[in-house]
Amino acid sequence: MTNLTETNMANAVKTFYERRLLMRAVPRLVHGRWGERATVNKYNALEWRRWESLSAVVSALTEGTTPSEQSAPTVTQVTATPSWYGAWIGYSDELNFTIYDPLLTEISGVLGEQAGVSFDTLIRNDLTDNASSRFSGGQSARTSLDAPEHDIDYQDWLLAYATLQANNALPVDGEYFICIIHPHTWASLSNDPTFVNLFIDGSPRDNNNPLRTGYLGDIMMCRIYISSNAREYANGGVGSTDVYSMLFIGKESYGVSGIASFLPDNVDMGGPDGKPLTGAGVSASPVEIIAKQAGSAGSDDPLNQRATVGWKGALATNVLNSAFIVDLEHTNLFSDA
């Protein structure tokens, strides 16, 4: 029998500490990317204006007769008033001296991610609340949707996309419309043979098969993005059926505004190897991160015991033309899961 064992030398046997911190799960933040962006400075609001189109002329001119003057076009005005958002966390000087992890770096990262998800969610909610609505399975209301009877299929997708085009919406970048879907919806559409065949027959970027790489490519001038932050209405359908949103976006359908430099940047590190999925610069910060050192509060912190880290930003989202953004509410394979 030995005298030195893990039991009687427990204080000497230490647990190995892996300092490499685990990655936090953050959704792909895509909802704000395609909005018209503007900021206010020295004002508390801004105006968006849209001139409505005139009707087509279908009557021929009569010889020698001047036609009647056209009615003045309607001007639609939308007022945006950005609101402030923010959050903070305090920590003690003792914790800063004793914790093994890089405290300020990690807290800043957690708060920055919270800010990104918060603004993406605010934009998403404004878009879905004010878009033109359609419902899967030929239904006319969210509360009528029931799974699996009304699970989304290719026809639902096509009708919503056709509605956007029939409203004379233009592609956001001159080439593509945008579709944002939830992973649960993607799983359902992947079971639809027509939808799958269109993907296989398409030409995704890098010539990789999207069914193997996971890249959501392009179908009929529509670029599809996936985000776990796509809107979900828990128990929104019949009984306990969960309802999901799918957004179709055209050019100048919505605006995103902020105050001076406090409008959040488009930053999305959800791509492969931590690269930006949306193509935004990796050096940009989504909001202002504010760090106050211990003692910066003066007489309110006489012993230099308290420090804080926080974020702040200003945002307003306005749907500028509801005909140019369509929200397809639907059920999918996970609606009754």
Layout of strands and helices, then pairs:
Blueprint lengths: L35 E5 L5 E6 L23 E6 L2 E10 H6 L4 H28 L1 E4 L18 H13 L10 E5 L1 H7 L3 H9 L8 H4 L4 E2 L2 E5 L5 E2 L9 E7 L4 E6 L28 E5 L13 E14 L5 E6 L7
Parallel strand pairs: 1-11, 5-14, 6-8
Antiparallel strand pairs: 2-3, 4-13, 6-10, 7-8, 9-10, 10-14, 11-13, 12-13
CATH topology of the domain at 139-250 and 323-330: hypothetical protein PF0899 fold
The biggest beta sheet is recorded as: 7 strands, mixed
Please state the structural category: alpha+beta
Helical percentage:
10-25%
Number of strands: 14
Assign an overall shape: flat
| Order of secondary-structure elements | EEEEHHEHEHHHEEEEEEEE
- Strand-residue fraction? 15-25%
Low-confidence runs: 1-6, 16-21, 207-215, 277-284
Q: What's the CATH class label of the domain at 139-250 and 323-330?
A: Alpha Beta
- Average predicted confidence as pLDDT: 82
Number of helices: 6
Rg over CA atoms: 26 Å
CATH architecture level-2 label of the domain at 139-250 and 323-330: 2-Layer Sandwich
Can you describe this structure?
The chain has helices at 93-98, 103-130, 154-166, 183-189, 193-201, 210-213, and strands at 36-40, 46-51, 75-80, 83-92, 132-135, 177-181, 218-219, 222-226, 232-233, 243-249, 254-259, 288-292, 306-319, 325-330. The chain is α+β, with helices and mostly antiparallel strands and 337 residues long. The protein has a domain at 139-250 and 323-330: 2-Layer Sandwich (hypothetical protein PF0899 fold), CATH 3.30.2320. The strands form three sheets. Strands 5, 6, 7, 8, 9, 10 and 14 form a seven-stranded mixed beta sheet that branches. Strands 1, 4, 11, 12 and 13 form a five-stranded mixed beta sheet that branches. Mean pLDDT is 82; it is low at 1-6, 16-21, 207-215 and 277-284.
